[in-house]
Amino acid sequence: MEVKMVTTVLELPGYEITQNIGVVRGIVVRSRSIVGSFFGSLQTILGGNITVYTTLCEQARRDAFQLMCKQAEKHGANAIIGARYDATEIMAGVTEVLCYGTAVVVKPK
Question: Which Pfam families does UniProt cross-reference here (predicted)?
């Protein structure tokens, strides 16, 4: 079954939860490359949005989200409710990005 809906709230208007599968998650651990760190350092001098790090963060979140959805699909879910992100710096330059939620099966009301 394919996950078609992911939401941060605990219900999907117009749908009924028929089965609660449980917590699913996607975890990605990323480090900055030497080149990325160099260009990021240059951008900090100029100020503003540090696009090298923004791109790295967006890709890590996207990958964690996809892993969460794959885990939900593996267990037969077609939706995820209560989705959240969390990030933890494991060591200097290495960050864990976690995406988690509750996998459910829903049907239209």
Answer: YbjQ_1
CB atoms within 10 A of CB 106: 19
How does pLDDT run across 48-66, given as a tens digit for each residue? 666 767 888 899 999 999 9
Mean of pLDDT values over 31-45: 55
> Whose CA is closest to 75, among 11, 25, 109, 27?
25
Residue whose tokens read 């939620």 = 101
What's the domain range around 66? 5-108
* Rounded distance between C-alpha atoms, residue 5 and residue 25, angstroms: 15
CATH number at 57 reads 3.30.110.70
- Tell me the β-bridge partners of 15: 108
Closest CA to 29 of 70, 61, 69, 71: 61
Angle, CA 60 vertex, CA 35 and CA 64 arms, to 5°: 155
